[in-house]
Amino acid sequence: MTGSEKRLEHARLIDGTGKNPLDDSTVIVDATGKITYCGPAERAPETPDVPTMDLTGMTILPGFIDAHVHFLFGPKQSGNSQDRALTTFQVAERMRQTLEAGITSVRDLGGLSVGYSSAQQSGLIQAPRVLTAGRIIGHTGGHCDATGPDGHNATGHFTILADDEQSARVAVRTVLREGADVIKICATGGMGSPHDDPDDEDLSEAEIRAVVDEARRHRGKKVAAHAQGTAGIINALRGGVASIEHGYGITEEACDLALAARTYLVPTLATAFNPMDPSKVSPLHFEKKSRWAERTRENIALAISRGVAIAMGTDAGVSPHAANLMELSHLVELGMTELQAITAGTLNAARLLGIDDAVGTVEPGKLADLVITDADPLADIAALADPEHVRMVLQSGVARRDTLPIRTPVTA
Length: 412
Ligand SMILES: [Zn+2]
Hints:
- This protein has 412 residues and is an alpha/beta fold.
- The chain contains eleven helices and 17 strands.
- Strands 1, 2, 3, 4, 5, 15, 16 and 17 form an eight-stranded mixed sheet that branches.
């Protein structure tokens, strides 16, 4: 079944809207990869010539969306890491593995050039649909400035420095010229950054407001802010960003601001809770990360209980690639229901990315980006992170992964 036209019968359907599951469903996909019907099996129209699959015992979900990845980053591999061809193939492989793990769309928040999303769109590679930020905007000496004391800069190709409102505007224009779909800024320092801490501020509130205004002037592009400590989170919220990335230091006051402005929080718990080997990092870094993991647990649980809009994102690249759906378990650990976590990874993420007209839920008129699992995600959300349970992944109705048993086509 290589084309997109198909009829999926008898699966349980969790459509991503937050509605309760539908037990005996039919989903019909047309030759353009769009859903034409999804709903109760007994009300489904006849489709005499459409290839049909019996999915009894399976659950259909929307393809998941990871709102925060870095495909350019990953474990060091053998070979010459300075060779761009090698890097390109490594990135393409990570993208394929991520797609096969059930992630059909992503937002890459720093490092990935627009060529990768073009390659995906033109079918050169099998990968999630990609919105990319390209280069990250931040202060000299801030989170994204990896220039060493000797002036050697190892990260110039994914960073652009800006130190006042005007240069922040120029930086936005520059990354848009390079093809960015979304603007990524640093509002705070970071856990692993060379010169600063999560509690340090990066771009000021006024600079963030200038970035947001400049992005708005270009077809309403959105701004995502790396923001870990409280002061920077508040600067970013007041500055008008679309999403707070990480948000580990979020407080009651920041929750109020996020609720009032309908700003999304992308808590990247996979990275906050990613176990660290104390023998591989400095004692200072280990202590810093352990302390922040505890704060994260309390503060993100608070944001969830306050009803702040949450979109799933993992910071994959810092955390492992293709284990993205582990994030759903972390969200449930901190107070979400399984259904809410699924919505965070589907409809909410699609809304944040501005692609909810095309994907994010299983509804007529949307593209058939679907995940088919033999697990019961409402009873065991962690099972979705196990590749064995992701039996089939469809993108616009086309199978990108299929480990279901060989079927005799049932054609009416
Ligand atoms: Zn990140």
